[in-house]
Amino acid sequence: MRSQAPIVPGSIFNLTRPMPFKKHWLLASLLMLGSPALATEPDALMTASPASKLESTLTASNRLSPVVRAIRSVEPAVVNIQGNKTISTTVSGSNGTGKQEVNGMGTGVVIDPRGYIITNLHVVQDVTKIEVTLADGTTTEAKMLNFDPETDLALIRIQVDHLLPVIPMGSSNDVMRGETVIAIGNPFGYQHTATQGIVSALHRNIPVNGSQEYKDLIQTNADINPGNSGGPLVNIDGKVIGINVAVRVGAQGIGFAIPIDAAMEVMADLVAACNSDGVTHGLTLQTAYCEQGTEARVSEVVRTASSGNSEELHPGDIVKTIAGVKIQNRLDSELCLLGRDRGEQLDIEIERAGEKHHCTLQVKPNGATTQDRLVREAWDKLGIRLSPVTKQALQAAGEKYSGGLKVLEVRPGSDAAREKIVPGDVIVGIHNWQTPSMSALSWVLKSEEFASVPSAKFYVVRNNQTFWFAMKVSETRTR
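and the corresponding structure tokens:
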């Protein structure tokens, strides 16, 4: 059987940080060369700035191609991600291992103007400090909110004092082999690099290791290098059709991207899980395909969770806006709910049989009060915010775990923080019991046997290996 070169994620962790370019010599060269066009038209410079004149000239030129327009369309919403992580290394001359801190790079795209960003999990996993650089050069620190190991997607957020440009969303439902695509990212630290190619193939299943694989990927020959992970794959219309994720070692012109339709569904689930207030507008939406791309259709109406004239809503209605925000897919609706207060009235514009209608729905609890209580209990007693993961997400660990609880956040000063538990860890057991769900964790915390031990072993999966930590459980509710 012919051996194949391994597939690796498209981020990079280097032992040395690349040196920045020295731009002053290039500027000096341009000044010495001059510009014949500007030198021969002094009168025109009195009425228009060089920048506006150049833009006007380019607009009438073939140089302003569809590829250039596509890059300009998405580039403001592409961010560069950098961070440090600690890896295990073999110590020369011995059989032991050591620890070494390395620099990592990746890319992300802004999906909400309030600072919510999608990227690959392997870009930000185990990173001690996630630094995000915006298109305008501003650098700020990001916080990881949620992630999905199976699809290698993560949701992070930066705090901003102004609204950010959002990536224009396309659809991967109608992607064609041979169509032109552009990849934008941070390969080897060269920020906002754009490469062009075509869609080489569709529906690729790519093994990562013996127990994990990326499924249903888009293959492209647009150059995707280490550092491109989490960046957009864009069509000629300037809309995202995929999230770049992996390259084949040793190969040229073979890169892969997660179809954007699948990525948006995963992100909708991740965003919904981040809604700490547990609210809903009473609608279950599905992303459907149309001539314009995608639209959000009502599949179910929960009457008890809504009010106003919600009786007018029916399955099959197309939701156009919620509270004035344009809705094109289920992710848009989940993002629209973030930060809403219970009792808030939302105006919803729908389309039915080609006619527009308006309905008013009230934001109410989503019924997950038990889940909310368990999440709060874990935060108060353990100092960690948790979210369940499936057994499939733990297959690479090599053990038959029936599920686990992934750590989304660690409270500073808690026992979990002192024991170096970090976001990305998955708790699979405590003391003598497995913890495949929040209800299992609640049972453990209420157990008399558990309460009688001064400290308990917490079994944690990290980087597909299982470790244990001894932790106390606080009886004080600390906020």
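(Above: one complete record from the training split.) Residues 1-33+65-274 form a domain with the Thrombin, subunit H fold (CATH 2.40.10.120).
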